[in-house]
Amino acid sequence: MKNLRGKALLTDPAHTKSTGFTYAERELYGLRGLLPYDVASIDKQIERVLGSLRCKNSTIEKYIFLNALLERNQRLFYRTMIDHIDEIMPLVYTPTVGEACSEFAHIFRNAQGFYISPEDRGEIATILKNWPEEDIRVIVVTDGERILGLGDLGANGMGIPIGKVALYVACSGIHPAQCMPVMLDVGTNNIALREDPLYLGYPYPRLNGDAYRSLVDEFVKAVQLRYPSALIQFEDFLSPHAFEFLDLYAQKVRCFNDDIQGTAAVTLAGIYTSCRITKKKFTDLNIMFLGTGSAASGTAELAVDAFRAAGLNRSQAQKRLWFIDRKGLVTARNENIKPRIKPFAHEHAACSFVDAINEIKPDVLIGATGVAGTFTEAVISKMSSVNERPVIIALSNPTSHTECTAEQAYHWSNGKVIFASGSPFNAVQFKDHLFKPAQGNNAYIFPGIGLGIYASAARLVTQSMFLAAAEVLASTVSEQEIHSGSVYPALSRVREVSHAIAVAVCHVAIREELTSLSLPEDISGYVRSLMYEPNY
Ligand SMILES: O=C([O-])CC(=O)C(=O)O
Ligand SMILES: [Mg+2]
């Protein structure tokens, strides 16, 4: 415990137990007199935390309160989050994190995470030495250009890596000291932010072209030097950059893109589970996407792998996937089709979104537009008229940007829809059924991927790991969860899910010869032994 004593121990967030120090510890560490009489168990402290939390009457105040708790007493924060994940996750993460990012410069209290600006060029490896931890295993990095569905939030986007790190710790048990949130602050094109006198970021237009790419490259290389065991998670980059960096680095360094691959795996898992409800064969499905960004094309690409693994050839697989953009169905006749979407632009007459549903009769509709309200009543009614049980996954985040709400989906489909969404929704009563729709969030995937990479020390993160993660996630959904309208397991079981995904990732790492570790025979027990359990 770094020989901490007295006030220094009491105020050290990683080591304090606050009122939880026993009388013997108070004697030993010079804490007598510094604490009130009662020795409180962590459960009693959690009760106090929840009492204070529930008195706050806005979600942003709750976010600020929880963030302050994290800065004050790490173990208490994580124990509270793990034991009350349904209540805490939407406050620490989406949807509240969207609001927290928008307000970041105004609610800022304490610097968390690591900031890199263009003025650090040439010195990134040097300044990384300022980070106080030596054994970093997970880095979540953003440049803030596409924060959730909120667009360019510049350095305010730091809330996202901070939130994702909290999910790593809570959902898969990577130790907080081994995770690092990073903001590559290359400026912002959001003029309102630059003009905000309280804005904290680099207050210039974004770097672009070679100046931008070379800074990202310097960062990736500096990480290899300072933290050779770290996994880099790219998060909330603008879609073309997200794909570019994935193509550039995925075969060279231990990295992945969460918005492309994590979201793809969670969506695919939802599709797998939906087949247990509809009794349709996975290889018979037609899947339609609204939106052509990272989440949609990432999911289509992973679905191609999944179809191929299930026996279709590449061209048959691609023909199962259709895209809609602002102008309607994307067909082979369109001009300026994005390269990633080209394989899914099939021969077909031009038609509107609703007409395309009528003609193609997709079994599954996935929204990843970042635009609220794009799943209209006409869209959902049409999906319901061409399907006994339409599967609709509205990924856009935060809640203010969702394609449709859960309530709309159940009402407009007359209770027929199998629904999931990127943001959490409350249960919906429709006629005599209480539907508990699932949150299709990549929080079910990336923590387990990260834990599996940590456990296996795999050199690279591969697409087969995401395919395996999707299969594992789908396999964990219980019949009871399905009955209540959910295609994902209860969030309260997320640590169990992450553990199972991590074990699967280890097996892929061995199969694909990506690890030089000789993993113990009992991989499951080994992975569990690595999971941080916050307790006193
Ligand atoms: O953060 C989330 O909840 C999902 C995600 O990665 C995004 O929307 O960018
Ligand atoms: Mg994201």
From TrEMBL:
Domain Malic enzyme N-terminal span(s) in chain numbering: 70-250
Keywords: Metal-binding, Oxidoreductase
Co-factor binding details: Divalent metal cations. Prefers magnesium or manganese.
Pfam families: malic (PF00390), Malic_M (PF03949)
Named cofactor requirement(s): Mg(2+); Mn(2+)
Any GO molecular function: metal ion binding
Amino-acid positions noted as binding (S)-malate in the UniProt annotation, renumbered to this chain: R146, N397, N441
Domain of life: Bacteria
Keyword Transferase: no
Residue ranges of every copy of the Malic enzyme NAD-binding domain listed in the record: 260-510
Family, as annotated: Belongs to the malic enzymes family.
Protein name: NAD-dependent malic enzyme
Organism from which the protein derives: Nitrosomonas supralitoralis
